[in-house]
Amino acid sequence: MAEKLPKELVLQILEYMVLDTMNHVYLQDDASINAAARRLLGESPATDVLLPLSVQAVLEQSILHIDVEFQRTEYGRLALLPSSMPALPHPVRKVLLTLDFEIPIGRQKYPSIIYTTKAGMPSLLSQLQGLRTLHILLNIELTRPPWDHRGSALDVGCRKGFSGTTTFRCAIEELLEAARIERPALEIFLEIKYIYEGTWRGSYEPPPETYNVAMGAMAAEAVLREADAKWSQCHFSQG
Length: 239
Fold this sequence. Notes:
This protein is of the alpha/beta class.
C-alpha cells in the first residue's frame, strides 16, 4: 500500500521514523547504510520497493558516526573519509566526529588530534558539500579527579607548535571557529564527555549524560563553557 502513496509523502514518513528510532548510525562499511535502511522497514520482502527511499531518509536525518584520518600533504591536511562515502546515493546531511584525547596533570601534552582536525577542516568540509550539521564529541580522559584540576580541566596547559603553550580550552575554541569560518551556514554542535577510572558520583543526582550544545551565533568560548557546565558541578570518587 505504501508504494501507492506519493513518493514525497513516503519519504517524509520515513524521515520521521528515522528521527524517532534511528537518530545515530555508525558508518562502518559499505553495507552500513543499507542495513540501517532495512531495519527501518523491517524484514518483509514486500518493503523492498521502498528501500531506496529508506536509504535516502537515513542519509537525510540520521547522524552518521564516521572515522576520519587526516593525512599530511604538501598542500595541508587531507581528510580521509570512509571508503564507502563516495558511493552513497545521496548527500550526507549530519555527521559526528569523535575526538579522543587525554588531559593529564603534571606534564604538558600535545593534543595532536585537536590540531590535525582543525587543520583538516577545509578538506573535510569540501568533501561533504551537502553537509548541514556537524556534531563534535570530545571524549576526554582525565588522569586525576576533576578537583585536582582546580576548576575546569579545560584550563590545563598544553603544548602548541614547536615551543608554544596554550590551554586545552583555547585549542578547542580554535577548532570550533575553524569549522564556522570554513562554512558559516553549518550548524555546529559540541558535546563533552569526561572519562575517569573512578566511579562517577554526582551531588544528589545520577551520573550526567552527555549532551549537545548548539553553537548558533554564540562565540566558541561560550559554547565550550556551556558544554562543560553540566560536569563542573559534579565529582568523582573511588569505589
